[in-house]
Amino acid sequence: MEESRPPRHRVTFLPAGVTVELAAGETLLKAAQNVGLHINASCGGSGVCGKCRVLIKKGTVVGGINEKLSAFDREAGWRQACTAQVCGEVTVEIPAGATKLAGGLSTGVSARNRSRLRQYDLEELRRAGLLHPPVEKLFLELPRPSVVDNRADAKRLIQGLHHQYDERAMVLTLPLLRKLRRVLREDDFRVTVTLARPVHLGQGRNYVVNIQVGNWTRRSFGLVFDIGTTTIYGQLIDLNSGEIIGGEGDYNAQISYGEDVISRIIHAETTAGLDTMREATVATINQLIARLLTTTATAPDEITSVTIAGNTTMTHLFLGLEPHSIRRAPYVPVSTFFPPFRASDLDLALPHHCVALLFPAISSYVGGDIVAGVMGSGIYRSPALTLYIDIGTNAEIVVGNREWLVCAACSAGPAFEGGGITHGMRAADGAIKDFSLNPESLEPMNITIGNRPPLGICGSGLLIIVATLLAHGVIDRRGRFNRRLSSPRLREGKSGWEYVLVWQAEVGGAGDIVINEVDIDNLIRAKAAIYAGIKTLVEEVGLAMGDLEQIILAGAFGSFIDLDAAMAIGLLPEVAPGKVTYVGNGALMGGRLSELSNHIRRDVVEVVNRMTSFELSEVTSFKDQYVASLFLPHTDLELFPVTAKRLGISSER
Amino acid sequence: MEESRPPRHRVTFLPAGVTVELAAGETLLKAAQNVGLHINASCGGSGVCGKCRVLIKKGTVVGGINEKLSAFDREAGWRQACTAQVCGEVTVEIPAGATKLAGGLSTGVSARNRSRLRQYDLEELRRAGLLHPPVEKLFLELPRPSVVDNRADAKRLIQGLHHQYDERAMVLTLPLLRKLRRVLREDDFRVTVTLARPVHLGQGRNYVVNIQVGNWTRRSFGLVFDIGTTTIYGQLIDLNSGEIIGGEGDYNAQISYGEDVISRIIHAETTAGLDTMREATVATINQLIARLLTTTATAPDEITSVTIAGNTTMTHLFLGLEPHSIRRAPYVPVSTFFPPFRASDLDLALPHHCVALLFPAISSYVGGDIVAGVMGSGIYRSPALTLYIDIGTNAEIVVGNREWLVCAACSAGPAFEGGGITHGMRAADGAIKDFSLNPESLEPMNITIGNRPPLGICGSGLLIIVATLLAHGVIDRRGRFNRRLSSPRLREGKSGWEYVLVWQAEVGGAGDIVINEVDIDNLIRAKAAIYAGIKTLVEEVGLAMGDLEQIILAGAFGSFIDLDAAMAIGLLPEVAPGKVTYVGNGALMGGRLSELSNHIRRDVVEVVNRMTSFELSEVTSFKDQYVASLFLPHTDLELFPVTAKRLGISSER
Q1: Residue A590 belongs to what H/E stretch?
Q2: Handedness of CA B216, B219, B220, B221 (dihedral sign)
């Protein structure tokens, strides 16, 4: 999994005298951002506005030149920080004009504090005895039949497995029996068999699901899918090495029947609606399977197992179970546990011998994707009191450790995905993902995804913008702009007061890009719902927020958010940033482990059975917690002592 | 299963003074035959030859009148014995002319000694604790969901089964999950579930395979099929009462690809031959299923289980397993054990939840039909040393008791089914099934199936004819006709010496019906193969034929053969006739028990594993045994002391 990394070089910024090391190819703007140096940059780093010019004092850079720089300036060493790429050690001076603060002093915005990626260490699992492959390929050399040994082919195979590998309790499947005679005799009774093991070792039977001519033990693969409401991701796993050898993703074709789970459920209640949506998702998965097999040059026959995780509604729709009761109180799913299915029964384009496992759900709104994350991240084996949280339109929250686990879902609304925000957008090219502010001029430094001209604000950018505006007193703790500040960028717009992030004149586009008080209010409501959910859960089990020892973030959003910003606005409870990790796609991670270890498949039943689910709307304290959370970061600053101190805010302010 | 029987009446024959009781509607010829009185009757009892006239002395009969009787004779009380039916107590005089023996004295032919039908006593099994239904229907009334009880539908169902019936370890299937929500709510959470139990109680899982609205526990059915090379029989079983409520049979549509298993295997080796034959058999079974459901007014949904037995080749062809190696030394089948299949995977027209069980086989030539018979007849639980034998083109032989079992198959040839016999035919209307001889005139009494004019000789008739000819010295112990006897019925024909059973002139037809020395030789070879097989098996385990304590006959032939004749020709070893029983179709009998008891399903694996199969062609003594058996009844008369005495034959004769 180790990628070859580009070389890293030192960049020294003058006059601040700050030095930072970063990868070749990264921009000077990025270097400055990393050490919290502000450089005016309206255009998101796309090289359009020309405001971010810096002077190369020593060393060289690649690029950073366009028509806004005269030949004389270029000769003198001026470059645009947003497009100048590091290619060796370099010393750069940030002119007063570029920052309007004397000499580019720190703006007080610390470097972005992202959570560490947490990945499963397969070696560690192996040492801990947790790796019991659910599928194994074994090579056999069997004696030929003779007059004194005319055992049936099936018996010969079973007894061979017993003698060579001490295997017991084996069942041969129909498709295997149908080709058994031919395959055994094609290479003189030298064959590779695929065994699907019982989840409880020593209990249940080993299914001999496939047989191949010759030795194919090296080639054994599994698939993992995360069925999201919007997107479906798939991975192809080498079951021998545990490595992910292919990954694909695509929109869930169901999306044409509604954006969210509720509209999908409503469609499922129409005639043939359920079938249509089931088929749509199956079609998407089958396309991903085809792409995964093609790109990795894997034969369908080499896939033995597929593990699938999704939220409860997606799981129902994929299986063709009626989701009707999920959207109505008391929110009853058809099932939270699913037996192993034959993949072909689910219409997956996989061989008959392939088994499909679906992660169990906890409730109508805490689904198999979260359970997969709980299993994959190992919370259920950890002594530390952990908050596991997957933030999206709905945030699913799990709190607990190896002794107990509680969970809940809360509806955060779409703010974190850019919904309900005037210039909000998904995390795509052109989305403002990072931001800093010149506290005197209130000029921004916008950094966009792909360094493209800004088109809007994505969720992680929104968090940083609001946290930065708060830190500089541009907004107060209720999210209202300080009307006393004077700047062309602060104005009263159609929806009340707003801050102009990008002037249309600077970069083109349909109009100015702004953030207004309604946007900020929507963000506050969203973060309040999540924080209140976490606090309610923690307090329902008799603990306090201060007892949380670590936070695990799941989902794409979790991997992008700046932890300081998240704590500054009160989205996440305050823990030391080093205690926050992210697992990326928790569903895929858990699915991959399930492909590699029967331990996970066995433990998940027990974990789900002891996980208590809270219906927040039924917990009386939740509403109060929510109201108390409608401040930045919270009404009660004692919950955020470090943050409050860092931001220089106090209850009195 | 008790049928209402017709009233029985006494018939007294003069001058012999013999009285017999028989059912109303039976003929006087049958009555005479039952007590061993010979009445000349060439035409098989069809009323054509007019030779069997008798005088009614007291009482009346129905029928027995045709144009061969004058009005005067009729008035005097003369009737034809073959068509005169008993309807009350009657006294009948057999005239000297009708028998040519003074006054119809006994010919020395005893009454036919058929084996008793042996049927499983379900009550006895129940008392013995052997009835563990593999399928059970349970009625449930579940609490409605509420805010404080929003368990998933599946959990509600599983926990309901646990609380109301102490059920554990349950798995819900996909089709059940798909309709669960709807069915639960249709009658306020009152449902009937169908549970398929694990074969080993307490091990494995209970599959909840179906759910119905309301209480349907009374309606629970299973199917049983016997896939014969020629014919397929099916029964529909009420799983609550154990009763057979429907039965159907039809030719196996495979028959157009060859009459015997070897020609079927050869066809299976052609392109698409296997598929074609598999589909043909499946089509026949599906037609039988449709007829069974229609005639018993059963819905497909009410069938949960089907048990199937057949010989090893038929089982392979039905499952689509390649039978190629079955017909070549060392005679290796693909498999002798078969896991439970989903009936729909076998293309049976049964609901998805229906499980198909196939009886395991012992070897390439001792198949699941025999194993079913062994299980159904209970040999494997009996202390008595038992011979179980199913006689057809191939005879399958099992010897043993509850401690050990050995088996073998021997190729008897088609003589018992009328094959290789000049006028042999299947047991159908017009086949001579019984016979006696006037020892002076050598005139026959032929009795045909259906009392139709004779068309040929069926297997059971052949046995009686040869035994009778032997008893009267018409043939010797090598099956050669006594050339010194003088009768128009004894003559030299195209294939050597022969006895004329029926003159063409008497009954019309294509020609005289005869039995010749080649026919008798073929029969001797067939019975020698079987007897030698039995004796080889018995002696291979260190026992003697005299140690056999009982015989169980299976198959249609077994139910028809006269035991005295069978022992007279040396087909069956000599045991007291009371120790011989027949089970009819052993495959159906075992299948029905398997539908009713998991005990059978569990024990069969162990029984098959400890049954030793002998390949007779590999046992050196078999050939000698065979040669020694090419006499009537055997070279060694000490093996048949009672028979020899009864027939008045000795080694010297």
Answers
A1: helix A586-596
A2: negative
B173/A345 CB distance under 8 A: no
pLDDT of residue B102: 34
Q: If you ran DSSP here, which 8-state letter would residue B481 be given?
A: B
DSSP string, B156-173: HHHHHHHHHH---SEEE-
Sort strands B116-117 and B580-582 into parallel, antiparallel or unpaired.
parallel
Query: Residue B4: what pLDDT?
Result: 64
Strand order in the sheet with B611-614: B116-117, B580-582, B550-554, B386-391, B394-400, B405-411, B611-614
Alpha carbon of A429 to those of A45, A381, A506, B252, B597: distances in Å?
A: 12, 39, 18, 69, 67
Per residue, the 3-state secondary structure of A410-446, as one string, reads EECCHHHHCCCCCCECCCCCCEEEEEEECCCCCCEEE
* ipTM score for this prediction: 0.84
Q: What percent of chain A has pLDDT over 70?
A: 95
Kind and range of the H or E element at B581? strand B580-582
For residues B232 and B257, is the Cβ–Cβ distance under 8 A?
Answer: no
With contacts defined as CB-CB under 8 Å, which chain A residues touch B180?
321, 334-335
Q: How close B500 comes to chain A (CA, Å)?
A: 47
- DSSP reduced 3-state for A373: helix
Q: Any idea which residue has 């061989």 for tokens?
A: A351
Residues A410/A416/A420/A422 CA torsion (nearest 10 deg):
160
Chain-chain contact of B321 with A204 (C-beta, under 8 angstroms): no
Sequence-ordered list of residues with C-beta below 8 angstroms from that of B419, at least 6 positions apart, any chain: B393, B413
Would the CB atoms of B332 and A152 count as touching at under 8 Å? yes
* Nearest residue of chain B to residue A343 (CA atoms): B174
> What residue of B is the nearest CA neighbor of A321?
B178
CA separation for the pair A445, B473 (Å, rounded): 124
Task: Report the gap between the CA of A446 and the closest CA in chain B (Å).
Answer: 48
**Cβ within 8 Å, pair B329-A181:** no
Q: Which residue has the higher pLDDT, A634 or B600?
A: A634
Percent of chain A with pLDDT over 90: 64
Q: Do the Cβ atoms of A339 and B151 come within 8 Å?
A: no
Q: CA triplet A557, A561, A567: central angle to 5 degrees?
A: 125
**Chain B residues close to A277, C-beta within 8 Å:** none
Does the pTM of the predicted model rise above 0.90? no
Size (chain B), residues:
653
